[in-house]
Design goal:
The structure is a single chain. By secondary structure, the protein is mainly α. It has a single domain, classed as Serine Threonine Protein Phosphatase 5, Tetratricopeptide repeat (Alpha Horseshoe). The chain has six helices and no strands.
Amino acid sequence: MAPKTDLSAYAFYCAPGDLRKALRRGEDPNQRDPETQRTPLMWLCEMFDHHHRSRKRMFRLLVQAGADLELQDHTGMTALDIAQQGAIKMFRRFVEREYGRRRAVVARRARDAMPSSSLQ
């Protein structure tokens, strides 16, 4: 199975320059593959090659562009689930750390947004 959108193909086939250009043109980092409902981030996490550095940069580019870490494909899997299932160990650990960091940021922002009277 291969990705059906350009952005997903750039992610899956590890083309960081093309991915960066597409994001700068304003392409949606959450665009869905019509068959699998996978996003570029999900395709990126289905990694079986050794382009660790490029894939890490691409992961961060997608997240900075607004990629939603919690989206699920047609089977209910997130990018993290996909990475845990098949990615090379080094990249899988990176994805797990990034998910942890992003979730901590979201939790901190939610806590900071609460009125101080509700914290007591």
